[in-house]
Amino acid sequence: MLSSIRTRKYLHKMVLTIMSFVAAFLVAISGTVFYYSDSIVRHTREEANHKVLAQASLNIGSMNEIVKTLAMSVYFDNELRSLFFDRIDIAQVLMRSGKLDKLVASSSFLHSIVIYNQAMDAYYGGGDVSFLSDRDPVIEAVRQTAQISPGKIAHMKLVPMYAELKPGDADTNGKVGFFSLFMYDSLDPYQGESMLVLNIKPEWIVSNIQAVNRLKGSSSFFLMDADNRSIIASSSRDVKPENAELDQLLRRIPYGQGVFASSVLRVDDKRYLATVMDLADNRWRLVTLDNYADMMKQVTMLRRTSIGIALLFLLTAVLLSPLVSRRLYRPVETVLSDIRKLGSADDGQTHPDEWSFIRDRYRGAIQEMNRVKQERRDILRTFYLTKWLTENLPLTEDEWAKLLADHRIPIDPKRPILLALLRIDRYPMLLRSKSPSELQVYPFAVGNIASEMLSSRYVCVPIKLREDQSALLIQPSGNGEEALPELADLLRATCDTVHRYYHITFTGAVGDPVVPGGSLPERYRTLSTQLDGRLMFEYGTVITPDKVLALSSDYDAAWIDELHGKLSIAMIEGRPDAVEQALNALFDELARYDYDGVIQHLMQLLTTVRLTVRRMDQHRIQALLLHYGSLFKAVLSAETLAEAKAALLAALTETAGAQAPRTGERRELIVEAMKEIIRESYLDPTLNLSGIAAMVRMSETYAGKLFRDAEGMSAADYLNEVRLDHAKRMLEETDDSVNKIMERCGFSNQSNFFRQFKRRFGTTPKELRLTSAVLPRS
């Protein structure tokens, strides 16, 4: 792993990340500029057009007011009133028309003034009109409008007049010759009464609009009426007012729909931004057209500038990214150096970069630290609980509560608890067949699985006591007695689960609920004794108090002795089937006894087997191959009665099968058995032929005859010889009194003892002792 880290993958990632971030940022900015530049420029131009058109509308409104003011001053001039309403001669008309000429001459925007006198049905004028002529175009245009189209006359509003201009008049780039403002007394539509007409030069309006339009550099503008007819058009227009596309656009935006509107117009593969504003006072429409290509020149320049800046920043990022990344990488390099100094070994894993390696090392260190902390807590808890249970340390209620609190044991110190011991079955065999690592796992597996299965119902704390045994502190919700059957079922289910996963079983022992604190160690000793006595139960059994009470301590000694005798005879006679029957009957009887009774009778059984085999060997040229020590160990180390019976059955049936009894040999074996009984039981003063015959399962008469025929003496005489031989040895080797030796050798009558002793040895016991004291012992 360290070799891969030396490639500095994370440093490379940092460089690439910074460069990628800068590139992405520049691309995003440039893309935003590219994407929104059109709309931004268009929106900006629309706002500029709005402001320009609003200013133009304001200027036209101001001109309207100027003309209105002038019209009112002329209309209400007392000197000129006669031209409107009186019948006057031509001299008076000429005199007053001179004043009109002066007014026109004094105003730069007036084209002419026309007055209609209804009384005389005559038109007079001043300025650029000739009212004395029959065909003056200005007066003719006013007359035609008043007579033919009086509905077009708007009171006190400028109206375009489509009269042909004389040579030298200003070029309006349209059909309008001048604008007229009509003033008359009535507020109703014009009905032919006297009126004042002020004719305004169109260039005055054109110059105002052009002056405002030049502020934004617009290419074309149109002043149109409500019927979309051109009134005034700019001189440098690219689109004619009669253009069909423009007409369709204006029709899509009817007059009066809105004060301001914009749209894109396409004419001859060119695009224009058309902006329309309604002038409500005059029922006119002001239209501007901006060439889209000219307008987007700014966008092109902006895009080129953004590309240049982006490339400059990208080049700067490429040059500076390694330096910045190297500086940012220094803390990572320091951490890696520290890890190398600590001697962190390669774990064999492939890490994508240095941070991944550091993260895994950090997580591993945290996990190891937590594991060590947990192990330390578990070790301390197990140590104190084990010491308390096994060493019978007395604890007060306060000390018990403190022990639980110090080691975070979730048990209520004031409520009763149950103690369960779990011991792994066949552990000696596991020691021989399993590895140390597997053996170390088993007690933890048993404790943890039991804790997990019981924790759904009870508070459960596992304790590892030794390699093959665990304990459980269990606290049910109630007083605990009603929980014993369910707890036993759960422990049996736990045993099944452990066997399914680990192929081992355990035997459990559960006691009655106890009060907290000091009584638990005593309960632990009781349960340990029950587990030691699991001989009476099968593997995987949960020993409960009711099962322990069902075992009997009332032993049938007579029946056991009879079964021992049957087993001895079956072995001596070499009958394996009889040996098996005797063992089955014997172990069926032992299954009812408690642990002490079973151990006691197993020891007696082993003694019987030993004596029987010894008797059998005395009459054989080759001794039987029965290793008594191994048999003793196998029986007493068996964990169940079934194992003990199997060990005995295998050894004894083989021994019985090795016997090849003939009739003579059988009699010799029986006699030898009787002699062995006498040699082993001569101390019993009540020993007689009747008792010996009962032990070998024969009648007294047959046993006495068999013994006399084989030995040439009665069994009683042989018993006396054995007793006298032992008495003689004790007189020679000990300082005990004669009476004491007599009693110890089974004699109850002193005179009989002296008589028998002298008959056998030719001297009395006292004389023998004196002789032994004087003569040296050979």
TrEMBL record:
Pfam families: HTH_18 (PF12833). InterPro entries: Homeodomain-like_sf, HTH_AraC, Tscrpt_reg_AraC-type_HTH. The chain crosses the membrane at residues 14-36, 305-324. One of its GO terms (molecular function) is sequence-specific DNA binding. Keywords: DNA-binding, Membrane, Transcription, Transcription regulation, Transmembrane, Transmembrane helix. Residues 672-771 form the HTH araC/xylS-type domain. This is Helix-turn-helix transcriptional regulator. It comes from the Bacteria.
